[in-house]
Amino acid sequence: MSDVQQRIAARVVPHIPHGAVVNLGIGIPTLVADHLPEHAAHLQTENGLLGVGPTPGPGEVDPDLVHAGKQPVTARPGASYFASSASFGMIRGGHVEVAVLGALQIDARGRIANWAIPGKPVLGVGGAMDLLVGARTVVIATTHTAKDGSAKIVEECTFPLTARRPVDVVVTEAATFRVDDGGLELVDLAEGVTLEWVREHTAAPFRVAAELGAPV
């Protein structure tokens, strides 16, 4: 994973309450496990493990121990293993406090598209729909722009929505937005990033929090 992706994962950590049950989605969200202090949270994966640890180092890989994206993980002491059906029961029952997901697009209301690009093969939506509906708080961890430089935060999603429920927080390498009934509010800029850069690379309207110098 790139330095940019690692920075995004590290920027997510302050949005995870101590002791929370947290589901980390595929891609950048999985890196959050490597930045969380030990015992800071209880990480859950929908294929049936509560107590996911950091990425295994050389010689530590157990081929039978993987997360939902089929990449190797470690298990913390005291971890629990259970059927995927029980795992989705936890998610749908509201027992996952925070879900960290990736996104292809985020719209002006905080809704996301993260499972399909029109014209490309679809591997399946996975647990993202369930997590968006069932998790109490949803945090997005994504690069601010796509590989071609286009904005990922847009007025309206052109890719299929994952769910109609808006997320709560959007974290990129450049900025952090909170989502409320009024849409997106910029609440943090990464070191070295200017408000002008964010405006130039964001295609959706957003408010700027007073603590960043915006008018009240």
From TrEMBL:
Transmembrane segments: none annotated. It holds the Pfam family CoA_trans. The keyword Lyase does not apply. InterPro entries: 3-oxoacid_CoA-transf_B, CoA_trans_fam_I, NagB/RpiA_transferase-like. Keywords: Transferase. Gene3D superfamilies: Glutaconate Coenzyme A-transferase. The keyword tRNA processing does not apply. PANTHER family: KETOACID-COENZYME A TRANSFERASE (PTHR13707), SUCCINYL-COA:3-KETOACID COENZYME A TRANSFERASE SUBUNIT B-RELATED (PTHR13707:SF57). Belongs to the 3-oxoacid CoA-transferase subunit B family. This is 3-oxoacid CoA-transferase subunit B. The lineage of its organism: Bacteria, Bacillati, Actinomycetota, Actinomycetes, Pseudonocardiales.
